[in-house]
Amino acid sequence: MHLLSHVAARASGPVEVTAAPLEVRGVSGTRATALANVQGTRVAYEKWLIERNGFSYQLVAWGSATDRAKISDEARRLFAGFEVIDPAARIPPPRRPATPYTSPDLGWTIDPGAPWIEWRSVRDRIPAAEYGATCGDASIAVASVPLLGFRAPLDATLAGLLELLEIRSPQELPRHAIRAGNWTGYELPYEKQVNGRWMRYRIHAFVGEDSALIAAEWRPPEQPDSECAEPLDRIDTRRSHPARLDKLERKAVAARFFADLGRRLHASGRVRESASCFAQAGALAPENAAYLFDEVRALQQLGHRDEAFRRVAARLHGAPCASSLRIEAAQLLAELGHPAEAIATWTSAFGCGYRDSAALSRYLRFLEREGRMTLAFHEAQAFADRSDLPRLRGQLAAANDPR
User: Fold this and answer.
1) Angle 262-181-154 (CA atoms, 0-180°, nearest 5)?
2) Of 369, 319, 306, which Cα lies nearest the Cα of 348?
3) What pTM did the predictor assign?
């Protein structure tokens, strides 16, 4: 994503990025937020990226992460004031014929052939997609993930695959069984609106021995199947191979899949399997604090508090000093009954320059509960934003008042 490359070039340490579709006054785009440490300061970014008729528009707001709510409000007003002067203006995109593609991670191939053309910006629309092509008003997108030895119920795996392509149906889709080599799966019909137009979908979802794949082709009802012959049957899995974890290019997508699968298993009562999924997601994206939180919660539910403590300690090893992961880990250590380790983790993160007033308030409240008021005053003085220091001093003074 453009925001990630822009911020990463200036950041020291990992960058936390989230993205979601945003439509304002009929203009559709992607709103992205990011948190990063830039020259020792925690900075929050808000960006709206619009690609329309061959033009690209970018609106950006940023500032200190301590003012994150204010930045979000200002960005909302900025975005609301944007207007395309000439909605009909158009730059025809370069037409590059779709060429054969081989997945570098998993080895499957697709060759849609003419008249299909490359959809080079498919990930701006569907971030988890690995491949995309278009033909007239028809489009295809493909996503795939390694299974890394994990076997989940087929229904949960299928739902996780659909989520990768952002296909969400309020009811179960009809399906019939299909095969591709030694991969088994389903074909599913679907309909939804895309940019105000109804599209009919044809979806193939496959699960192999070592990996899983989903491909969707959609077109408006008025575009006949004979025009731009449907390309799903041109996916070839015969040369697929197990992923090499050390060579995996799309770890973030695989981590997202395992985390989503873990939440579905947890909701269905399969807590032990969900903990394994969250652990795998954390191994693929060790900087993601949410995956650690979900794994520890599952282990606590199973009564495995010692194992939960070991998992937190393992994730802290090698984690960036000033990171949200350390803040989340400190909170978890406190909840697991390890106050000394929790305090050391909080102190190291704030001492390395991590700044978040809400996180600091939680830390100080923990110190209050532990009866460590002298340390709480010291930490507030050392790590609080100057503008927030009076409030925190008042909070601590009130807690320390014996009346």
Assistant:
1) 25
2) 319
3) 0.72
